[in-house]
Design brief:
By secondary structure, the protein is of the alpha+beta class. The chain has one domain. It is built from 3 helices and 4 strands. Strand 1 and strand 2 form a beta hairpin. The protein is globular.
Length: 99
């Protein structure tokens, strides 16, 4: 079972237990295929990949797994998360001009 928007009514941030969380949908069919769940309090972001929300604590997340997702969807991520998001962000990349 994939993520339904209704599920957002009960989800809280696993780190600071903040509720409600923000949902940003990147790709949707019958269900949300890809997107991100954001905690507005601690600025952590949790990817939704293949309809599955991955709400893992920081120590179980690896930069090599998370950064491609962040880069793939960076045009749809809130700017604040791109620069300040936890546990990973692309602040250094945003500051650099491509040339």
């Amino acid at each position: 079972m994939g993520i339904k928007k209704k599920l957002m009514e009960i989800l809280a941030c696993p780190i600071d237990k903040y509720y409600p969380l923000e949902l940003h949908v990147f790709e949707e069919k019958e269900e949300i295929v890809e997107g991100v769940i954001i905690c507005p309090k601690c600025l952590r972001w949790y990817p939704i990949r293949d309809e599955i929300p991955e709400m893992l604590p920081d120590e179980l997340r690896e930069e090599k797994d998370e950064m491609p997702f962040l880069r793939k969807w960076k045009k749809k991520f809130p700017k604040k998360i791109l620069s300040e998001g936890k546990p990973f962000n692309i602040k250094e990349e945003i500051g650099k001009k491509k040339g």
